[in-house]
Structure formats: structure tokens, C-alpha cells
Design goal:
431 residues, alpha/beta, Nuclear Transport Factor 2, Chain: A, Neutral Protease, domain 2, four-stranded antiparallel beta sheet, binds zinc ion
């Protein structure tokens, strides 16, 4: 059974909290001292301050280095004595090489000033750790920029000195590693898919391209097309990286994954704040599919490719982690009615347990011995909605649960509770 992993899903809610609200302690103290001497003397902007012009200048240098694809130019932006230069060299040599071969990835750097740490009121040196952001788009797959952040150290020695980059450290684990960090990769483009693979898997990628395309095309037939998106990104993985890309997923046995990529505002992320981008009409998130070696021996391969693509396309609505049935049910339902017809008896038997799991977490669903039946019963929820109210109602329901801050808000929006949906499905199933 193909999973949308719960850990990556949970990131959707847990990941969006404010990170690193700056203290601004020294500024407060300075203000208190000044006011004690009388009014109108406070000059909070005095001293050595990292300005927007400073961050913009450093950003320009990084982006110029990215444009040339010259790794030494990138390394040249960093303090020459830093211990991690070879790591930067290795990572970006591989990336530039892969990006050039793929030809469909654009990227740029963002530099920000985290609140409260970027000013020295006395005018002396300012040095701080912050988030350096690299944002990329995969043409056709990403309607907005996908972000990743690196722990970095910055310094401004005096008021008139430029902002320096002392160190680029590890990428934030929730974004890392990307498929282009773990191997030399190439890609095949079809009408609805970008299929990325390492050299060793080229013949398999070629052999399966038409089936991956068939699965992706089916997903685009079923789902509303996210604005600016006409392809799904598939990566062929191998045992050493199965389930371990983009922060990793916790479901061990699944043979395919949809990794969730929220669209966070890159400028805000560069100041340490995780703020979702909210551009009207544009998708709120995207994803990447990872296909394990085991997937390729499955007789229902096209359905797996479709299932994972539906997860990725449903991320266009993603505001908060939806109930598990709403996520897996949609993807399973998209695979077709024949699975429900074939398993009717098993679903009827499992339905009492399913009724409970609807209101529980991802663990109760995935760790149950009835997991397969839960997928099917979840799909039955949508099949029942489709029979009652049509295809539009299926999409309205999925969108409500993906796009609301809580299941209760989704129920309000729909004018129908999950309890009612479950009761209707029980009747529909004859359970
Ligand atoms: Zn799934």
C-alpha cells in the first residue's frame, strides 16, 4: 500500500509555527537608558546595524555565483578560513552538475536579518547565526518556490563594512537531502511527469516511463489541476535512500511515498520565520514522489503511480494535516472502484474498527493489522459521496479537509459531519 507519510504530513502543522522570535534585548536597554535622560533622545537605529542593503548585497553575490554555476565563485563568497568549504564545494559541484544535466531547475538565494540579533548599539562587531535560504522551482511541477534553509554564520565588523558570510552549515533536516544531492541523476520528461533517476536505473526508468505517465495522466484527469502545474515529479529511489529523502519518512514498508513540500515564504524563512506563502489562486504546497525498487514488480504499478500523484496534487489545498481517511481515501479512491468491489466483504467486516480510526491519528491507521482495509474503507467514504452527490462533491470534501485549520471547520464548510459521512458510508457498504 502506498503511503503519504504521517511525519511529513505533521510537518504541515508543526512546521508552521513561528521560529526564533528575536529578543531585541539590547535595543530595549538602550531605549530605557536614553529615555531616563529625557524625551526625544532615543535613536534606536544608531550603532552597527545589518540593513536591508547589506543583506541585498550579500544575496546578489550568492545569486551571481549561482548564475555562473562556478562553485569557486560560490566558495569565494564565504570567509576563506572556514572549515566547511570542502563540504560546500562537494555539495554544490554535484548540484550544479545535476541542474545542468536536468535543465529544468531554477534557483536563487535569500538572505535575511533575524530580529534582535543584528544590531550592536555601541557600534562594534555584529556576528550571528541565521538561516540562509536556497529556493528552487522544478519547471511544470512547482507553481511557487520550494525552500530549503542552511544554518549559516554572518558578520558585520563595523557600520561601514559589508555583511560577510562566515560559514554555510548543514541544511535543515526537514528539507534534506534532495534527490540531486545523493547521486548523479538524469531525467525523462513525459506529458504529465518528470522522472528522475540515477545512471544505474536509466533502463528501468525508460522501460517504466509510459506506465508512470499513465498513472500521472490519470491523476490529472481526476484532480483539479493546480494553477501553474502540469507535471508530477517522480524519483526512482534505491535501498540506501528509500524513504530518506526530504527529511525522511517514517513508514518503513511502503514501497512508494509522496513527500510533502510546503510553500514557505523564502524571505521570511531567511529571517527565521516559517510563514506559508498565500498567493491567491496558487497551490499552497507541492510534493515529490519516491518510487522504491519494490514498486516496479507490482502488477498495479500504474495505480501506485496515480495514487502518489493524487497525494502530490492534493497538496495544492494543504493548510493543515487532514484526517487520515481524507488523505488516503482520496488517493485510494482514485485507483478505481474495482478494488472496492473485490474487497467488499473484508471492508464490511473491518468497518466497526474503521469507524473508530476515522477519529484517531495516523499511527492507529497505519499500524493496524487492518491497514489495507482502512485504505479501502476510506476510499468508500469518497465513493459514497460520489454516488450521492457527484464528482464535484468528492473534490469539495477533500478540499474542505485539506484546506481547513481543523476537521470541525471542514464539517462546517461542508454542512456535514464526519459522523454523518461514516454513517452514510456504512449504509452504502451494507456493513
Ligand atoms: Zn497514500
Amino acid at each position: 500500500m502506498a503511503h503519504l507519510d504521517r511525519r511529513t504530513l505533521l510537518l504541515g502543522s508543526a512546521g508552521l509555527v513561528l521560529a526564533g522570535c528575536g529578543g531585541g534585548g539590547s535595543e530595549k536597554k538602550a531605549a530605557v537608558r536614553a529615555t531616563s535622560k529625557g524625551p526625544n533622545i532615543v535613536k534606536p537605529r544608531t550603532g552597527n546595524l545589518v540593513s536591508q542593503a547589506d543583506t541585498a548585497a550579500l544575496r546578489d553575490r550568492l545569486n551571481a555565483a549561482f548564475a555562473t554555476r562556478d562553485v569557486e565563485q560560490l566558495v569565494g563568497v564565504i570567509e576563506p578560513g572556514d572549515f566547511a568549504l570542502d563540504d560546500v564545494r562537494a555539495r554544490w559541484t554535484r548540484r550544479y552538475d545535476n541542474f545542468d544535466r536536468l535543465g529544468f531547475i531554477e534557483g536563487e538565494w535569500y538572505v535575511g536579518a533575524p530580529a534582535g540579533r543584528t544590531r550592536n548599539g555601541a557600534g562594534g562587531q555584529v556576528e550571528y547565526d541565521g538561516d540562509l535560504v536556497f529556493a528552487h522551482t522544478v519547471a511544470g511541477c512547482d507553481a511557487q518556490q520550494v525552500v530549503e534553509s542552511y544554518r549559516a554564520t554572518f558578520r558585520k565588523t563595523s557600520e561601514d563594512a559589508p555583511l560577510e558570510l562566515l560559514h554555510i552549515g548543514d541544511a535543515d533536516s526537514s528539507f534534506d537531502p534532495s534527490i540531486w544531492d545523493v547521486a548523479e541523476i538524469d531525467a525523462i520528461e513525459t506529458d504529465h511527469a518528470r522522472i528522475v533517476f540515477r545512471g544505474k536505473d536509466a533502463s528501468r526508468a525508460k522501460a517504466f516511463a509510459s506506465r508512470i505517465e499513465a498513472g500521472a495522466a490519470k491523476a490529472f484527469d481526476i484532480m483539479p489541476r493546480p494553477q501553474g502545474v502540469d507535471k508530477v515529479f517522480y524519483a526512482l529511489t534505491w535501498p540506501q535512500v528509500d524513504g530518506r529523502l526530504y527529511g525522511g519518512v517514517a513508514v518503513g514498508e511502503a514501497d512508494a511515498h509522496a513527500y510533502y513540500h510546503p510553500f514557505l515564504d523564502p524571505s521570511e524563512l531567511a529571517t527565521g520565520q516559517r510563514v506559508p506563502t498565500d498567493t491567491a489562486g496558487l497551490p499552497k504546497a507541492t510534493g515529490r514522489v519516491g518510487l522504491h525498487e519494490g514498486t516496479f514488480s507490482r502488477s498495479d504499478f500504474v495505480d501506485v503511480a496515480c495514487h502518489e500523484a493524487v497525494h502530490v496534487l492534493a497538496n495544492q489545498w494543504f493548510v493543515n494535516s487532514p484526517p487520515i481517511w481524507a488523505v488516503e481515501g482520496l488517493a485510494q479512491w482514485s485507483e478505481g472502484r474495482r478494488y472496492l468491489t473485490a474487497a467488499r466483504g473484508r471492508m464490511q467486516a473491518a468497518f466497526p474498527q474503521f469507524e473508530k480510526v476515522v477519529f484517531q491519528g495516523y499511527d492507529e491507521f497505519h499500524q493496524s493489522s487492518l491497514e489495507t482495509e482502512f485504505y479501502l474503507c476510506s476510499a468508500a467514504m469518497y465513493a459514497c459521496i460520489e454516488d450521492d452527490d457527484g464528482l464535484d462533491a468528492v473534490m469539495r470534501t477533500a478540499q474542505a479537509f485539506y484546506g481547513s485549520t481543523s476537521p470541525e471547520k471542514a464539517e462546517e464548510k461542508l454542512g456535514r459531519t464526519q459522523k454523518q459521512l461514516v454513517a452514510d458510508t456504512r449504509k452504502w457498504l451494507g456493513a
